[in-house]
Amino acid sequence: MSGLGARFADIRDTVGPLCVGIDPSTDILTRWGLPDSAAGALELGRAVVTAAQNRVGIVKPQVAFFERFGAAGFMALESVIQEARGAGLAVIADAKRGDIGSTMAAYATAWLAKGPLESDALTASPYQGFEALEPAFDAADVSGATIFVLCATSNPDAAAIQSASIAGESLPAAVAAMARARNHRGNTVGLVVGATRSLADSGLTERDLEGTLVLAPGFGAQGAQLTDLDVLYGSAASSVIPSVSRSVLGAGTAGLAAAIDDHRRELGL
Annotated catalytic residue: which of 96, 180, 207, 246? Predict the structure, then answer.
């Protein structure tokens, strides 16, 4: 199976760009009446995969909510990833990895090479230097996956660092420029650009995002509206993957499918 970068256009044109998060937090598991354990996380993940089929083409497990259960949590995550990919869904591993040299290469192998955690995309942090992510970029070139580099995130405290400038350019704009330069072989390098602030407030323009896949958290429970996708991202909107999690998971097992359908309608699908 090709990675997300190679498949995105087909996914968007077939079922739309919406991504559904798989976040088995303590709060959500409790609301579902499930144990706050790896077994509960697995049951929730499987329910999301079932509801997502034929409605969306992309799911995004938040690795931390599985990782907190140790080895059993990783086993649950492996099953969710494999079952989602087996169902034809593209998987974005929201792991936010970032390191240097052989350590970054090991992360790339873990998440993008053939193996139990193999995913179609991975989120990554450029804080140790954009070029430090090169082993992951190389792995994405091979598999057709996408490395979504944190650029302008949706959390309210992001501005303390992300409002910094480099040689007169905003930090997010500098990261976006590096992504565009490295993305010369296709959709292998993307950006995380949250939807809770305008591009201008994040130090970005539509042009900064041109030709780049954008993973956009912040819709649904965080307050951004899917109906505003074009307003928020302008000419870059066709390459944006809007992500929703709590606004879907909060509907419980019985309401998952309807909640996804509601969000699809907001996108005009």
Answer: 96
